[in-house]
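Hi,

I'm pasting everything inline rather than attaching a file, because the server keeps stripping attachments. The sequence lines come first, and each chain or strand is labelled.
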Amino acid sequence: MNGVKLSRGDAVVWLLTATLLMSLYMMFWQADGHGAEAVVLVNGKRWARLDLFQNQDLDVPGPLGHSHIQVRDGQVRFVNSPCPNQLCVHTGWLSQGGEVAICLPNRVSLQILGSDPRFDAINF
Amino acid sequence: MTRTLQTTRDDYLIAGFAALAITIHIAESALPSPLPGIKPGLANVVTLVVLCRYGWRMAAWVSLLRVLVGSILIGTFLSPTFFLSAAGALASVAMLGLLFALSRALPGWAVGPMGYGVAAALAHMSGQFWVAYAVFVPHSGLLTLYPLLMTLATVLGIVSGLLTHTILARLNSAPSNGNPV
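And the predicted assembly:
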């Protein structure tokens, strides 16, 4: 192995390789199915479409009262809802494409839109 | 009827180097591999040595003969393994051809074994990866593996470049007996 010398051409090839590898990692490892938008459905009808990177708070009217939905930095959750078991609240923050939180008593549901949903279908 | 086939010195060299590459290829196929498609690529060192000493045309012959005959001897001819291997070999031969032509055109920027080794390994990996993705496992989950595989290919390419460099140095310093083999 004595006297391995990189020629100028080799250096160019290695430089291109390093650039290629970095861009590959950026392309294939950063987009991890993180959703950018969510929809709110009331009674099965679209009530709002949310940009997850625009922080906001919404009061969504349902049959029982208002469900409070919060958007913060790419995530969204039910803060509170006028339902007895609070399943929607306990679902917590959603951020991955395809994730859902549903408040069945108040007929409000929340779903992240994504090109690459984490689940194909969910059964309860 | 007897027909005489005109053979040239290059034909014998190609046959000899291909035989060497096939032997290494088969020995390598006996090594366990953590992932399909990951191999040290030692047989490719023969291709690189031939490329640096005799040019691209002979290296292409050696590489493609190795894949063809190697697969027949191992028993994977026309199996998925064979197509992956052939796609990789074609891609790396094409890549080496490009770099070889560029090196001819711009001698000041000529690529050496270290550059050839890395470029060939990356092209080989890409060729077989995209065939695997397009034909065998068209699932986007496979793409997550691609950067990792390419990183591995780079490391293996550097190793094969180093080996090629060492072999070339030994060959060039060996006393010549008039026979280039």
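Chain B touches chain A at residues 99, 102-103, 106, 108-112, 114-116, 118-119, 122, 140, 143-144, 146-147, 150-151, 154, 162, 165-166, 169 (CB under 8 Å).

If the labels don't parse on your end, tell me and I'll reformat.
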